[in-house]
Amino acid sequence: MTTVNRLGIDLSGDHLDLFLAGPDGRPLMPAQRFAHNLPGSRAACAAVITAGRAHPADQLAIGSEATGLLWWHLYHQWAADPQLAELKPVFYLLNPAAVHGFRRALTPNDKTDQVDARLITQYLSVPDLAMHPWVNQLEQWPLRFLTRYRCHLAHTLGAYKSYARTWIYLLASAYEDCKPFGDLFGKTSLEILSQYPTLDSLAHIPTAELAEQLDVLGKRRFTDPTDNARRLQQAARDSYPLDPAVGDAVHFILGQVIDIVRFLDKRLNSADACIARQVQEDTDVHNLDAVGGLGPVYSAGLTTEIRPTQRFCEGLKLDHRRGIARPRTLADAEASVAKLAGLWWPRCASGHFEAQDRRMSKAGNAYLRYYLIEAANHVRGRVPEYGAFYQRKYAEATKHHHQRALALTARKLVRLVFVLLHKHEAYRPGGNQPA
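-> structure tokens emitted (435 positions)
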């Protein structure tokens, strides 16, 4: 029987709190605190090595909560330590929500850093086929940092665009309804909103003159600038008049928010260009890019969050129907990817009761979920199979039609993405299905 020592690490910005327990749960060294920096990390590693040699076991399980990136330096440094490697370490990054739920199931106790470290050792002692070791993927992190930064930019830009709509409504309440431009946040639209404290003056400009101004602002790309001018004047006439007492403040704030939107949009384009340069020689990204609508950015986001695919195929799968633990299949692996992204709908059943409403979990890797949802939204317009699937699910939904159909399309897309990455194949319409 394999004997396992367990090390729990509670991380904060300043300190590392360690608790090392033997196979029977008894402490192998006093709970210790070290500075969370390079010298402190080395001292902590040396203490663990000394205790591990004094109390040998077949394996050393090391666990910590995945809180931000506080774990990043420590795990990569310790994973490369040749002396620690003698103890056969296996690293685990634990979901803080799961550890919190585990705490609630135990007898109430103090909430301190030392107690948290011991709690992690207890969590590591629970046999769980769903808990997978952390894999040192240093080569994946440059691209992963970039795609996650890009995701953060996209969310921030979306939040500021939503905030800008509030001030656009105050400035010109009918602007969005009249749709003078195809894109509310297009260059010409933002220029008009920035230049004019109110739109009242636009209503009195001759339509032909306004159309010429818009055509110049739009660099002669409007199909019918006269129609744009009419819609803009209609928005000026239909909007509530803005009281002069607040006009200057509203115009100033909207101008500031528009400047931030423009800045974030430029940063997003820069991030996209940097990601595209980073993946020029990446075969897996090019294979995904062959799927219509994905493009290099979404392909890169999916690739870096899922690779290496082999980690989803390792270990055993508990087969509830047969009551055994069996090797994982490709279907199990792609289901694990979907679960990692939170794209699954947990059952809720008890006795003869089976819940009809099943909410999407959303627990897991938010970055992977973002890239899957965005990818599905683009693929449905370019690949007929996914477009037809989206339309079918849209018609079947009774509420939140677009959101539900898009989430289900993303779940379907997981199968294709995983197979392309796992088999290192380019997309073939009608092929590339999991075995």
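The chain is about 55% helix and 10% strand.
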